[in-house]
Design goal:
Layout (H helix, E strand, L loop, with lengths): L5 H4 L22 E3 L1 H7 L2 E6 L9 H14 L5 E4 L3 H13 L3 E6 L5 H9 L3 E5 L3 H15 L2 E2 L5 H7 L1 H10 L5 E5 L4 H15 L8 E7 L4 H4 L21 H11 L2 E5 L1 H15 L9 H9 L10 E6 L7 H7 L10 H8 L1
Parallel strand pairs: 2-10, 3-4, 3-6, 4-5, 7-8, 7-10, 8-9
Antiparallel strand pairs: 1-2
Helix pairs in contact: 3-4, 3-7, 4-5, 7-9, 8-9, 9-11, 12-13
The structure holds ligand F0G.
């Protein structure tokens, strides 16, 4: 049996050649889930692109598979990345699969427990940095130059190219481009990649239009939404706790060209959106992923998007990545003795 991941399914859209090893964990092909209850409330034809269904539980796998394939092709000695968690989980998994050593730099105490567990169990060398993501990325770039390692952050063009595939899948499944795409923004790679994916598909005659790209940040880490640097980023959505997005310029261009915008939402709104998605739609996504839905709940009624539009919210990471935040806001189970009477009473 042959795995069918991004390189196999979209090889003709990607910069691969006969010498590129076709690495795969079966990434991509994630569910596009109609959000009927939320969509009706907001007056939108609303879908979630559930990226939590990727092999390591986030959208990062789409780009990591190509970045690792190209690193192998170039004979790299190993991989390095800084990460708020998901990139490190993905890098560690694809490195393990490919037999490459992997070093990951994480901001100490600010990485969700599931992601840290992934990096460790896949055998990456995990270094906890007493600092934030922006500082960790500076160190990772310097280390890569010193040691000849391939950087697999979104400064790696292959990462971003592979991530274009989320746009291709949307068009292939919907039969057209959506009118708008909402997604969370941290280092601003994914929104840039998504836009480039629609542009490439239109050039290839496979898409008719480019959706408005709407990038959403957490208020405590919103350099692009507020248009000024954020030296001390802070948010419950640790995946997007980033103050100096390396792809900020490219993302601003993409958002402007698409007729979209950057928005900011509060941590309370992010957690509220997470609970709504889980309780009303049966979809569990990590906090950062829910920033897009939070922005629709706050701004859809204020003319952000015309009523009746087709909108896709990219839910970038699986809810199981950050069980602690979810459990803290979801209440505790009932506890009883093992007796039928006690059970009846507890449930009455
Ligand atoms: N959502 C999730 C779940 C993420 O993990 C990230 C980024 C983003 C959204 C934002 O994407 O950076 O391309 O704008 N996580 C990176 C990491 C920074 O290290 O895992 P972006």
């Amino acid at each position: 049996m042959k795995m069918k991941g991004i390189l196999q399914r979209y090889g003709n859209m990607l910069p691969i050649n006969p010498g590129t090893p076709l690495v795969s964990l079966g990434e991509g092909g994630t569910p596009l889930i109609p959000l009927e209850s939320l969509g009706e409330e907001l007056g939108l034809r609303l879908y979630a692109k559930y990226e939590g269904a990727n092999p390591t539980g986030s959208f990062k796998d789409r780009g990591m598979v190509l970045a690792v394939a190209k690193a192998l092709e170039a004979g790299a000695k190993g991989l390095v990345c800084a990460s708020t968690g998901n990139t490190s989980a993905s890098a560690a998994a694809y490195a393990a699969r490919s037999g490459l050593p992997c070093t990951v730099l994480l901001p100490k105490g600010k990485v969700a427990s599931g992601k840290l567990a992934q990096a460790l169990i896949h055998g990456a060398r995990v270094v906890s940095i007493r600092g934030n993501f922006d500082e960790a990325l500076g160190l990772a770039l310097a280390l890569s130059r010193e040691m000849g390692l391939a950087v697999v952050n979104s400064v790696n063009r292959y990462r971003l190219w592979g991530q274009r595939s989320v746009a291709w899948e949307m068009v292939d499944e919907l039969g057209r481009s959506p009118d708008a795409v909402v997604l969370p923004v941290g280092n601003a790679g994914n929104i840039t990649a998504g836009w480039a994916g629609f542009v490439q598909y239109r050039r290839a005659g496979k898409a008719d239009s480019i959706p408005a790209m709407i990038g959403v940040q957490a208020e405590g880490a919103a350099p692009l939404a507020f248009g000024k640097p954020c030296p001390a980023p802070e948010t419950v959505a640790t995946a997007i706790r980033i103050g100096r997005p390396v792809n900020g310029k490219k993302a601003s261009w993409a958002v402007r060209m698409s007729g979209g915008k950057f928005l900011a939402v509060s941590d309370e709104e992010i957690l509220g959106a997470q609970r709504r998605l889980a309780a009303d739609e049966g979809v569990f996504a990590e906090p950062a992923s829910c920033a897009g839905i939070a922005s629709l709940l706050r701004y859809a009624g204020q003319g952000l998007i015309p009523r009746g539009s087709m909108v896709v919210a990219v839910l970038t990471g699986n809810g199981l990545k950050d069980p602690d935040t979810a459990a803290a806001g979801a209440g505790a189970p009932l506890e009883i003795d093992a007796e039928a009477g006690a059970l009846r009473e507890a449930l009455s």
